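[Automated response] Your request has been received and processed.

Submitted sequence:
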Amino acid sequence: MAKGSIYTFTVDKKEKKEVEVKRKNKETGEEEKVIQTKTVKTPVKFYVKKPTRRIADEGETYYAAQLSKNVKQGIVTKAMLAKQYIDTGGTFTEAEGKSILVLMKDVDELKSRYQLIKSTSKDLADAEKKELAILEQEIIDKQRLLIEMENSTQAVYQHTADARAERSVLLWYTIQLAFQEDKEGTPTPYFDGAIYEEQLEDLYDKEEEDDEFEGVVTNKFMKAVSYWFYSQSVKQDEIDTFVNMKNE
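Generated structure:
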């Protein structure tokens, strides 16, 4: 695995190259060298960069901005929608709705506590490191449970302000973390553009590109980042299993 990355993968790119081949001259019977154009497969290496503290902080800020933007446009949040269904008797029971609201509240409080410790302590004591590890695991566990509960009502939740903001931040993370190695082995950002909007447009273009190579690479990046985002796992084998899982 590349240094400073959470996931690496290789995809073969088909390229036309001039290659030197040997053949026997039919008239003279002597062996001669000729140049032919052939389609060859060249392996290209890609990797998902390990998110730094700065990237994580910027990601949270971006998510908050997108959530606020959606709410200002009149799109309800998951919490607002859950409350509506509790009040009107929607697609899930009152107990299920309340459980979702409680989980949301718990996750927010745990995140606030986590950020408070991280921001107020430059040199963490052992007790603080231990508390951070516990808080991080609790956040992951509750988020997984929340996702499982929401999956049963995914059609209802997918158009909420939260869901839209999550999809936006996943694209943001994909662009920030996607890198490829050039022919000299130097890491370069995979998505082109001087500003984020240009990079996002390049992502859409590559995702919709008829070229199978760019479509496959973009899809792998998005799957890997999505798995990391929801599970917080940085294990190559776990991410690889998810990325290469075939849709039933």
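Summary generated for your ticket: The chain has a mean pLDDT of 83. Residues 54 and 66 are 18 Å apart (CA to CA).
If you did not submit this request, please reply to this message.
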